[in-house]
């Protein structure tokens, strides 16, 4: 059985490594950190560590097999309440900026500009990142992570926004009730903004 809970106080590094592995071949990440970049996995890990730490701990879910300490999957959300404590995230954000360099930061800014026109009116949740360890793919970990948080969101009657970076991920999200709401122009072929409307209370 796969269990999902909030991230623990000392698990940001492990969660970031899981996400870095899951996104190693992602086309958007290839624009942010080039596949030939030196120490690419370490750079991706710093980027995801900053994402984890800039969210509230109760908005980051980790999945494990029952009785195991190994993190198999991670989902990073932005709730309508916003991000995490700024002071907690600043060191990670600065380190990520230093490691990534100006070219990657410019690509990140362009990506943000492509996403902004598609954001729904608040309140809404944003699924920032979701990834599963290579050792656990095909075991329903991603579905468990999605269903865990979507159950909470549906009970609150709020919408969810995300970006599908590949046609395969788009099909996965469509099965969970997400609808395409526009192409992310200039990002990468097939990248799509998606919205899951608020469920009736």
From TrEMBL:
Keywords, A to Z, come to: Acyltransferase, Transferase
Q: Where is the N-acetyltransferase domain?
A: 31-199
Identify the PANTHER family for this entry. Answer: GNAT FAMILY ACETYLTRANSFERASE (PTHR42791), N-ACETYLTRANSFERASE DOMAIN-CONTAINING PROTEIN (PTHR42791:SF1)
**Record bears the keyword Transferase:** yes
Spell out the CDD domains in the cross-references: NAT_SF (cd04301)
Pfam family name, one: Acetyltransf_1
Q: InterPro entries this protein is in?
A: Acyl_CoA_acyltransferase, GNAT_dom, Trichothecene_AcTrans
| Membrane spanning stretches | none
Q: What is this protein called?
A: GNAT family N-acetyltransferase
Is Transferase found in the keyword set? yes
What EC number(s) are associated with this protein in UniProt?
A: 2.3.1.-
The organism of origin for this protein: Nocardiopsis sediminis
Q: What GO terms are given for molecular function? A: acyltransferase activity
Q: What is the lineage of its organism?
A: Bacteria, Bacillati, Actinomycetota, Actinomycetes, Streptosporangiales
